[in-house]
Amino acid sequence: MAAKEVLRDIKSTLEDCVGHKIRLKANRGRKKVYERTGILEQTYPNIFVIKLDEHHSVARRVSFSYTDVLTETVELTVYRGGQEQRIEAAKA
Questions:
Q1: In a domain, 75, yes or no
Q2: Pick from 6, 29, 79, 80: most CB atoms within 10 A?
Q3: How many domains does the chain have?
Q4: Is 54 inside a domain boundary?
Q5: 48-66 confidence digits (pLDDT tens)
Q6: What CATH code is carried by the domain that includes residue 8?
């Protein structure tokens, strides 16, 4: 039950950050780390979507689950009003 509450906390924190600039650091396995910046575009019941700041003709979006944040596969830092806020699971 505690894991569900932590996931709910992560989701509510991200819902407050929709529309803000976000830095994404994702572990893709086998020593591959993916670092990008973008805008937190939308949250859904099981995933969140980030629109990446890349200079292509087509906007690129990536999605991750809240479990990725819980397991630290994805690290998120939100930029709000000149300050950085790291999104992470609450330590019990």
A1: yes
A2: 6
A3: 1
A4: yes
A5: 999 998 777 777 899 999 9
A6: 2.30.30.100
